[in-house]
Amino acid sequence: MPRMLVALLIGIVGLALLVFSIGRVPGPETVMTPGERVAATPQGALKNPFDPSDAAIAAEGKALFAKSECVGCHGADASGHVCPSAINSVWVYGDDDDTLFRLIAIGTGPLQQAGYRRKARETKVGPMPGMGSLIETDRDLWKIVTWLRSRASGAGTAQ
Predict the structure, then answer these.
(1) What is the pTM (predicted TM-score) of this model?
(2) What is the tens place of the pLDDT at every residue in 78-87?
C-alpha cells in the first residue's frame, strides 16, 4: 500500500508540473535558437535582454553580424549594400524589439504571414530571408539587434 501511495503522489506531482509548464514562455535566461524563441513567444512579447547602451555587447553583435552573412546584403557597416540599410531611420516593419527579432529570425515572408505589415518604404526593397538558422542562439541575435540599434542611434562605440 505505501508503494502505491508513493507512486500516486509522484504521478500527481508530475501531472501538476506538466500542467503548470504548458503555455509558459521560457524566460530570456533559457538559451534557445532564434526559431525556437519565435515559436515559444507570443507576438509582441519579445524583449531584448541586453542594455542597448552596452558597448561590449554591441561589439559582440558587430562580430556576429559579420559572421552571420548579413554583410552580403546589408554591407559590413549595415548601411545598405544591395538591400536596405539596417541602421537608418526607416524601419520598414517597425522598430520594436519583437518585430526586429522576428524579421531577422524568420524573414519577411513568414513575418507577413504572421500579420506584420510594412509601415514605411525604403529605396532598396526586396524579400529578406530568415537568418535564424545561421545565428546559433537567441542571445546572439539579440546582440546583433543591440549593435544595429547602437549604429542607428549613433550611440555606442562598436561602430
Answers:
(1) 0.76
(2) 888 788 888 8
